[in-house]
Give the backbone structure.
Amino acid sequence: VQLQASGGGSVQAGESLRLSCAASGINFGIYDLAWYRQAPGKQRELVASITRRGYTFYADSVKGRFTISRDNAKRAVYLQMNSLAPGDTAVYFCNVMAWWGQGTQVTVSS
């Protein structure tokens, strides 16, 4: 199983980024999917998740700004991040059960 995350970068506060995670070697459509993030010196935290039926969950800190979506045909999960703030700076990881992507860095400057 491989999860390949992409789309991170350095942006100014208020700008947007869209993260993508492509999966291979997995029956993608039957699993719940999630994005986590880990800031320096902090524990990894759940940002958003989406069930196989499309139900979503968001951490309070990103609710209303981030949107998680999935495309089972493309075996991909996305995280649209709007109105980014310096507090969103972290390495973002996609997750499927016990499998993790390699992480993509998001840096937001004020």
Notes: The mean pLDDT is 96.
